[in-house]
Amino acid sequence: MAVLLGVLAGAFSGAGDFFGGIASRRGRVFAVSTGAHAAGLVTALVLAPLLPGRPEAVDMWWGAAAGVMGGLGILALYRGFTASALAVVSPIAAVGAAGWPVLFSLATGEVPTGVQAAGLVAGFAAIWTISRSPSSPGPTGTVAAGVGYGVLSGVGFGGLLVFLSFVGDDAGIWPILPARVAGGFVVAAVGVAAARTLVPLVGSLRAVAAAGALTVVGNGLFILAANRGSLAVVSVLTAMFPAATVLLARVFLRERLGATRRAGLGLALVAVALVAGG
């Protein structure tokens, strides 16, 4: 069950990124991110009462901490896109999102089986290859800057997953509420400081709402998965979210699926099979 929930968490998170990318194509990146956090908060308010859960105060604080880390991860990712190429920043951030929870799990004594370890290695390879942009669009800034922002973004997204894994088994998905509030506050505060507008364009509102709602579902599924299985395994499965983004772009935007990304998708399937079999 944990493996299935982890895969679904990645699928919904990747779908959220797809719609967030659609909305961001019209500009106003800070507005899209802030609006998505607001839409996610509304979604969490609707879904949380439908699932069993009695969170304690500490669970809500862990949720808030996760939201802060997620907000910082998004900001580092966006800043990296303006300082270097997507092909440099994206894969490092995606691998970091899985890598830091795995390192935390190993440091706390969680040891995967041999088959699971092979699945984790395949998962990291899949995340890297799927996240790479073959055309490398974006600024031609230094590779060092891209690596730096990619690492910072990975720390933020990895911290998000680690803190969400601390949520108690009986908390349900209620901690997603403070996560959305805290993350939205971080993004909005930086946007205001940078004199950026926080009001999305009317034509992008549906995509913004979809991005926020789907991301919240993905986060909620991750909490349920982490409560039922290994953090190392679940985090790698969830961090395969770029696979869903790429597939949706292929279906709805007719974007070309190159050989590298096809290989990455194949590796993702192998990783899921190994993790489930282990």
Summarize the structure.
The protein has 11 helices and no strands.
What's the total helix number?
11
Number of strands: 0
Helix and strand pattern: HHHHHHHHHHH
Structural shape: globular
Strand content: under 5%
- Please give the alpha-carbon distance between the first and last residues: 13 Å
Number of domains: 1
Overall SS class: mainly alpha
Rg, Å, rounded = 17 Å
Major sheet characteristics: none
- Give helix % range: over 70%
| Low-confidence segments | none
**Overall mean pLDDT:** 88
Topology:
Layout: H1 2-24, H2 29-47, H3 57-83, H4 86-107, H5 114-131, H6 143-165, H7 176-193, H8 205-226, H9 231-238, H10 241-253, H11 259-277
Helix pairs in contact: 1-8, 1-9, 1-10, 2-7, 2-8, 3-4, 3-6, 3-7, 4-5, 4-6, 4-9, 5-9, 5-11, 8-9
Which terms would index this structure?
single chain, 278 residues, mainly alpha, 0% strand
